[in-house]
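Blinded run. Sample ID left blank on purpose so nobody reads anything into the name before looking at the predicted structure. Input follows.
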Amino acid sequence: MKPLFIALFVSSFAIPHSSFGEVRLPSIFTDHMVLQRDKAVPVWGKAAPGEEVVVEFAGQKKTAKADAGGKWMVKLDPMPANAEPQVLKAGNVSVQDVLIGEVWLASGQSNMEWEMQMKPDSQADIPNTTHPNLRLIEVPKTTALTPQDDVPAKWARSAPESAASFSAIGYYFGLRLHEELKVPVGIIQSAWGGTRIEPWTSIEGFDAVPELKDFVADVRAKLPGSAAYRTAHEKHLAAVEQWSKAVRDALEKKQPVPAMPGQPQTFTADAGTPTALYNAMIHPLVPFALRGAIWYQGESNHNEGFVYTDKKKALLASWRSVFQQPELPFYFVQIAPFQYGTEEPEILAQFWQAQRKCLDIPHTGMAVISDIGEIPDIHPAKKKEVARRLSLWALSKEYGRSEIDPNGPLYASHSVEGAAIRVKFAHATGGLASRDGKALTHFEIAGRDGLFQPAEAQIDGDSVVLTSAKVPQPRRARFAWSKLAIANLMNADGLPATAFHTHWPVDPDLGDNFAKGCAWTSSDKNTYGWDTGLTDGSWASFAPNCYATSNTEQFPKHVTIDLKQPRTLNLILVGAPEIGSTKTVAISVSTDGKTFREVGKHVFPLAKATRASISFPDTEAKYIRLTYLDHHAQLAGGFPNTFGFTTEVEAYRVR
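Blinded prediction complete.
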């Protein structure tokens, strides 16, 4: 009887373990949720290793076995929209009131996070937010240095108590889709005010963009757990051991003790750390089935120009990979005009161009809101209209509404016609118009000297013809090229035109920037994360887009750029930021990297972002050297005056 007793004892534990073990679902699977229609729907979670998990929903029954780590996943077959509440069962877990419809992720910084209750116009709509088939879920603000599997969150039906603290743009976007499509809609809010784009991106996303190789190498060196971080700290440990020995020797010989080697930087899990928000607020959603994403962010990155375009590519590479949707639709907001303190007016305009460049990324769209900005307020109130313009992209591109053109007028080309410049616009079917019925504003033209003057602008079909008595031989044109520009040009659909500049960033009079993307060597290499950004195309004033030397006391210091091949040059542009105490910088060129000839120098003012133009006769060069001859005695931005800072170097042959 003893063997039989043992067998019965074992089986009494085996049966409950395989049939009734505790199955756990991540928080994205809670009562009142929406599953994406017409796509395979992943359902996943945790269970005991080796446990068989049965998932049942809408007449489907799928089985999976938990792996050695307890993870399991099934994929439900694509299902049509269904507004009838159903139950999703996974082992011992039942999720109630589940609908099938459209699911969108709403992410970004404060303008996406901005709650319904925070502005009078959206606040007035809160009593009318009861929509049982519109479902909302907000991911709480949290950070992590490694990808997380879950984050505490809960779906809710749209109602005054759930909508009041929800993203106004997310709510209005979801409501419009719900009303237009007549299907359930779920909006996942994952946003955090004041955040940059880098924290929302995975390390693998940065890896996917070659232009960011220096940036991602710097991130890895500071990210605990990475091989580069380990290597950096092993080198530091060896240096400390050598220093310790040197200290003993110095003490023994009664000599001064050498300075202790500086410790490599280490990232902490905060909202500004690259990957930290992706890890904690996006990865826990992966691989939930989505239709697409909307994005309102950029204010915190607005001073870095086209580097932002590369970072947007990284963000999309990141999300599209983990959600297993290579063509994930991604519709974003071009940020609004705003004062931005004493900053140069054109910096925001250049960022607008970087955002427009993001349209070259497949399956993206941009909602322009320059006409509804509020100069004193970085959080414009008209969130319903912003959401409507984002919804135009979704309706047009994802839901077959081909009659909708979600674009406002976009600069297409220009031509000189005597004393006038004709600017032609795309997405101007039906003609162009003035929003307020007044003369068109914020158009400027210039001759070869580049000195812009206000222009009279006349609409001619899909073109605008520009003239100015002060510019008899115009060559260049620009529109809304200022952080304060709230212009009035729109198309027949009432959508505003976005800013443009006919000669930026590639100036036809200058030609190619031969220094773009070139490598350099420093006589005094910065070890604080500022040995980047010298030739990245960005004139931003902070790392990783601004370069600096070390802060050793010895001057002069220099940095040498390798142009890769001999070039004929006659113009070099150099910039210094408003931080630091950079003063006199000499510019020299060389064919062999050994013998340098000075072609000019510039004395930069203290505490003011400045660009210097160094012109000289045609000269062949393969190397450009910046020599920091001295520095201002005063400090700017709290940095020691022994750093030499440079925002950017560009090199041209002007014909």
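Unblinding after everyone has recorded impressions. The first helix runs from residue 2 to 20.
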